Amino acid sequence: MADKIEKDKVATVNYTGSYLDGQVFDSSEGKDPLSFLVGHRQMISGFEQELMGAKIGEKRKFTLTPDKAYGERDENAIQKMDKGQFPDDMNLEVGMIVGAQSDQGPIQFSIVAIDGEMVTVDFNHQMAGMTLSFQVEVVNVREATPEELLHGHAHGLGGYNH
Question: What pairs with residue 35 in β-bridges?
Fold first, then answer.
């Protein structure tokens, strides 16, 4: 029986993700395929759900609503911060994505507006509230190694190297 995508397997896929208007936001085309450990929250939930049971060589197309992708937008995630909270040498620009450390680990936010000493930031994921389409081809499926299960991610080509 051919291996199929299921929890605790390492799946390797070629993929193209696009918005509903057809604009591609991410693709493995021209790069190594993507490897991920299934069932360990490496991928958005809907992506994994749609690939469950897929076999090597299988192609699937699917569309994910925000609840299965990056969630709905939360207007409470838009906040104003004092410019002094940013490093002095940071050249702040509207649209810029900034990474920071929080007590919950690394976070990203975008700069929405700059008004004098006040900076409006948005902690929503850049794709929150969006419906996304994917075309995926399964390249390989294999058993995860004990080390991968322990670390919670795939190693090697298309995965983590450490």
Answer: 12
Q: Give me the number of domains the chain comprises.
A: 2
Domain that holds residue 93: 75-122
Q: How does 8-21 read in b/e, with b if 16+ C-beta sit within 10 Å?
A: ebbbbbbbbbbeee
* Residue 63 and residue 25 share a domain: yes
What is the pTM assigned to this prediction? 0.81
Does residue 157 lie in a domain region?
A: no
pLDDT level of residue 3 (50, 70, 90 thresholds) = confident
Segment (H or E) for 146: helix 146-151
For residues 123 and 131, what is the distance between their CA atoms, to the nearest angstrom? 19
- pLDDT value of residue 62: 98
DSSP state of 22: S
Asked whether the beta carbons of 24 and 135 are under 8 A apart, the reply is: no
Task: Look at residue 86 and tell me if it is in a domain.
Answer: yes
Q: What is the 3-state secondary structure (H, E, C) of 124-142?
A: CCCCCCCCEEEEEEEEEEE
